[in-house]
């Protein structure tokens, strides 16, 4: 795994996700650039491929239900852009040490209320990953081996129960956190060093350049 501090890894992941999310619609060339960056990021973090593909499969099933009614062309762009964002953030989350998401959040320059929401979201994703692993194990015990068989099993029988079960567990985890004195922040200190700040600024400059270039290219196409 790439030797980067947790706050730096989180901030770089967010830069990639925000830059891709703000791309102009139908800017396929620049979307491909972000796709290459997301793949490089996943390789650098050495994310477990089987866990990543299993999680992406379940997430994309839900996204397809939302995107496909928008039309094939628009849906394909939105799904690929969502896939890039999911690959980036899932790569970060799957390579986190257990229960360290709050430490990564401490170095994020955002309001405390947003940090609390992100922390709870991260806790929920950890729970969701655990439930996905349980479902995959159950599918294998029933003789459903391979990605296609697993997706058929998940979409046909278990997608709804996955989120219901994970939501119930998330509520129990949050109640346990409150009982143990959780008040929205963790008693840790995590700041970026000078070199890490420079890396984040460089990544932001690259992301801004790519995203703005997608809008300028689109304007040139319209004018012609």
Rg computed from alpha carbons, rounded to a whole number of angstroms: 19 Å
Distance between the termini: 47 Å
Tally of DSSP helical segments: 8
% residues in beta strands: under 5%
User: How many distinct beta strands?
Assistant: 0
Quick description:
With 224 residues, the protein is an all-alpha fold. Helices cover 78% and strands 0% of the residues.
Describe, in plain words, how this protein is organized in 3D.
- 78% of the residues lie in helices and 0% in strands.
- It has 224 residues and is mostly helical.
- The protein has 8 helices and no strands.
- It is globular and about 50 Å long.
Secondary structure elements and pairings:
Layout (H helix, E strand, L loop, with lengths): L5 H16 L6 H18 L3 H19 L4 H23 L6 H6 L5 H30 L5 H33 L14 H30 L1
Helix pairs in contact: 1-2, 1-4, 1-8, 2-4, 2-8, 3-4, 3-6, 3-7, 6-7
Overview features:
224 residues, mainly alpha, 78% helix, globular
């Amino acid at each position: 795994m790439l030797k980067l501090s947790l706050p730096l890894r989180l901030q770089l992941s967010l830069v990639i996700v925000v830059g891709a999310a703000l791309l102009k619609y139908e800017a396929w060339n620049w979307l491909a650039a972000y796709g290459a960056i997301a793949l490089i990021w996943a390789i650098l973090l050495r994310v477990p491929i089987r866990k990543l593909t299993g999680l992406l499969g379940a997430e994309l099933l839900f996204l397809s239900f939302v995107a496909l009614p928008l039309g094939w062309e628009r849906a394909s762009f939105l799904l690929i852009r969502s896939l890039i964002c999911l690959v980036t953030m899932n790569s970060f989350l799957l390579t986190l040490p257990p229960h360290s998401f709050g430490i990564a959040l401490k170095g994020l320059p955002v309001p405390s209320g947003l940090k609390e929401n992100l922390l709870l979201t991260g806790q929920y994703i950890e729970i969701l990953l655990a439930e996905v692993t349980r479902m995959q194990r159950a599918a294998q015990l029933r003789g459903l081996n391979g990605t296609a068989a697993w997706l058929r099993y998940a979409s046909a029988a278990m997608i709804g129960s996955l989120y219901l079960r994970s939501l119930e567990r998330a509520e129990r985890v949050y109640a346990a956190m409150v009982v143990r004195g959780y008040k929205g922040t963790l008693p840790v200190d995590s700041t970026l060093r000078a070199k890490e700040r420079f890396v984040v600024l460089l990544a932001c400059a690259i992301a801004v350049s790519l995203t703005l270039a997608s809008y300028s290219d689109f304007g040139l196409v319209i004018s012609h």
